[in-house]
Amino acid sequence: MYLSELWKLYEVDKRIQGFSPYTLKAYSLQLIMLFGDFVILRLRNQLCLS
């Protein structure tokens, strides 16, 4: 399953539970930043190993 599909399922579930659209937007931005950090760390590790 792709991350985008997983996010859509998570978002639908949280909307059913009554989460605010603003809260879900904040969660989305935090997820994007987290994965950006993972990419940066992976690139740094690859550069150090080269």
Provide an overview of this structure:
- The structure is a single chain.
- By secondary structure, this protein is an all-alpha fold.
- It has helices spanning 3-16, 21-49.
- It is elongated.
- The mean pLDDT is 89.
In whole angstroms, how far apart are the ends?
32 Å
Low-confidence stretches: none
Label the overall shape.
Answer: elongated
Tally of helical segments: 2
Assign the structural class, choosing from mainly alpha, mainly beta, alpha/beta, alpha+beta, or little secondary structure.
mainly alpha
Approximate helicity band: over 70%
Largest sheet: none
Q: Tally the beta strands.
A: 0
Oligomer: single chain
Instruction: Give the H and E element order.
Output: HH
Please supply descriptive tags for the structure shown above.
50 residues, mainly alpha, 2 helices
Compact overview of the structure:
This protein has 50 residues and is mainly alpha-helical. Helices cover 86% and strands 0% of the residues.
Describe the SSE topology.
Layout: H1 3-16, H2 21-49
